[in-house]
Predict the structure of DNA-binding transcriptional regulator, AcrR family.
Amino acid sequence: MTERQRGGRAAKAEARREAILDAAMAEIAESGYRATTLAAVAARVGLTQPGILHYFPSKKHLLIGVLEARDQWDTAAILSRSTDVKLSHLEQIVEFNAERPGVVQTYTALAAESATGQHPAREFFTERYAAARAAFTGFLHQEFGDRMPGGLTPEQAAPLLIAVLDGIQIQWLLAPDEVDMPAAFRNLVTLLTAAERAEDPADLR
Amino acid sequence: MTERQRGGRAAKAEARREAILDAAMAEIAESGYRATTLAAVAARVGLTQPGILHYFPSKKHLLIGVLEARDQWDTAAILSRSTDVKLSHLEQIVEFNAERPGVVQTYTALAAESATGQHPAREFFTERYAAARAAFTGFLHQEFGDRMPGGLTPEQAAPLLIAVLDGIQIQWLLAPDEVDMPAAFRNLVTLLTAAERAEDPADLR
């Protein structure tokens, strides 16, 4: 085999791996992880089940592959690539998410499912949320210091921001024409960053 | 059969129906609806599958039974029974929920799952969220008028409150020792209700 043939084969294998992961994400968005079958993923990508198992030896390996592609869907992972994050960048990510309901659906299904029973993604999401709270707290400290203009500390604001990101996604997935996801997120940002109350800032502490 | 015997039988049937619903809620909390099997529900409640089917003719009927028991777990349904709801009542419900992770888990699993694919609970949750936004908007208007002290309208605050209720539950279920669910909710309430900024209230409009 020539160098060029080897390169062509590797590229083809990589493309097929990606196609399988895309199909798995779509299946999880449809049915959640527990109800996803390798047969359904195979049918979606036009392969046989043994064809899938050549790339991912089990359904659990496929889940790990989806989770490892987290940069596609994980706000915290996206932010961790930047050094100078500001709260306004988050608003852009929410607007971006509003354009791709499929990815949001995969994420929402997996995150909520991971909090039930013995789920193979439970540890991943537990660590992911802890990391997200730490990352959000860190960049809020950098931008606002120990207290945000609205009165909360970055430690108090971080879980709230993450909760609204997750919670508003469910409402938006169910009623995209009624729920304006970016607007709801901007409203929280406004509450968090509006100028400190003149009369008695201590009442928020 | 005497009147008393008939009464005893009806009470026994009702108790068994309740026990089946409790078992179904527990199974859904463990596995979600799609991966829940009638066999698992039957095993949990100590009945045979035909025994379950006598009370609920299909898995979908069982789901409907769980959804109809919504007063056990649905904040909006709890609130709709009261005529003079205040924002502070919501805080009490969050504190109550923090004492019963099982119910919260059933609800979180079902709500997120309902937003995926063709789910039998999708219509229920779509309507439930629309009703919750309307109910929250209504009681906020009653308590605060057309604008809340923090600057948002009741229409803007309602989806945010619901989003935080849902979103913080996921973080709390995954890390109950790290995430203080009632405190996070109180922080949002504080932001929404803190006295209007003296310098320029218009900047929030």
Remarks:
- Residues 196-205 of chain A have pLDDT under 50 and may be disordered.
- The domain at 1-68 of chain A is CATH 1.10.10.60 (Arc Repressor Mutant, subunit A).
